[in-house]
Amino acid sequence: MNIGAASRIVLAITFLAGIAPAVAQSDAMTAQERANLQLVRDWWQDCVLDRQLDRSSLYMSEDYIQHNINFPTGRQGFVDVLSGIDASAAATITSAVQFAKGDFVLLVHNRVAPEPGDPSRTYDFSSYDLMRIENGKIQEHWDYAEKIPGIPRGGAPNGTDFAALDFDYTSSELENIRIANIEFKDILQYGHVELAEQVMAPGYIQHNPNVPNGRDGFVEIFSQFANPEPIRPEWKEEPALILASGPYVFYMFERSRPDPDYPNSTYPVFWFDMVRVEDGLIQEHWDSAMKNPPQ
After folding, report:
1. Which of 66, 158, 180, 202 is least surrounded by CB atoms within 10 angstroms?
2. Does residue 195 contact residue 180 with C-beta atoms inside 8 Å?
3. Contacts of 295 (CB under 8 A, 6+ apart)
4. Cβ atoms 6, 90 nearer than 8 A
5. Residue 117's pLDDT band (boundaries 50, 70, 90)?
């Protein structure tokens, strides 16, 4: 891999992120879920940060399923790409939230990027990594990654039947999902922005760099696009996966993007949204958005 391609991969993926010791974690995890989270943390430290790639087989299945379009699937594909990238080039980013639910482990990160139109300044945005654990090893990985032109197409079909998943949720987690669904289905998909007052805290913290903080800022932005329709039980765009742990509710949407190397072809991307629900109201939101260039 040439140096230019390697540096672009560093900017495009979250594998090379540093995890800060102080990070929010759900307190609703079982002992096994905490063990799954620790497995991922140890793998990240040993293989991603310290580049002890000879230890990757301790943490990863040989047939590890990779959904990042810029990485070949399989454990060896992961090793081959990271072996060709200088570890010192890794961007330092901090972890915002970590939790495990069932066989899944989620890491949500705080990141920094150059300001569009003014590279001397920076702004904050969010990213995530989601892993599925099987037989004590990392079996599958998702994140949000857009294809880098010229990089051989990677990724793999899903190895998980999301419709067959069944999680052991507490009554409070189910209520948090119900509240979060009002934002992502009833408000954003069916256009009923007036419901924000019922489910969103006035001081709603927004990590999307294109949307102002506060419930009023959310309403002001999305009222411009709202076209209210009768609310139906079904989603217009159904999430591929919903996970809840304690106050956190995570959504993953599978979408498609035009392939820059193959006209009339698309590739999958895995968008995320996550909220923190406390006291019956949505307090905080993260998603995959980066800052829009100036008009």
Report:
1. 202
2. no
3. none
4. no
5. confident
The strand ranges marked E within the chain are 24-25, 60-66, 94-101, 104-115, 118-134, 137-143, 200-206, 241-245, 248-258, 266-278, 281-287
Q: In what order do the strands lie in the sheet with 137-143?
A: 24-25, 94-101, 104-115, 118-134, 137-143, 60-66
Question: What are the CA-CA distances from residue 121 to residues 89, 116, 118 (Å)?
Answer: 19, 9, 6
Take residue 63 and report the two structure tokens written for it: 């047939």
Distances (CA, A) of 120 to 115, 127, 250: 7, 22, 33
What DSSP element (H or E) covers 36? helix 31-43
Query: Which has the higher per-residue pLDDT, 273 or 10?
Result: 273
Q: What is the pLDDT of residue 6?
A: 42
For residue 288, the one-letter residue type is S
Structure tokens at 120: 């001397």
DSSP for 41-87, please give it. HHHIIIIIIS--GGGHHHHEEEEEEE--TTS-SSHHHHHHHHHTS-G
Neighbours of 15 (CB within 10 A): 23
Structure confidence at residue 93 (pLDDT): 61
Whole-angstrom distance, CA of residue 105 vs CA of residue 5:
29
Separation CA 174–CA 235 (nearest Å): 17
Contact 193, 223 (CB under 8 A): yes
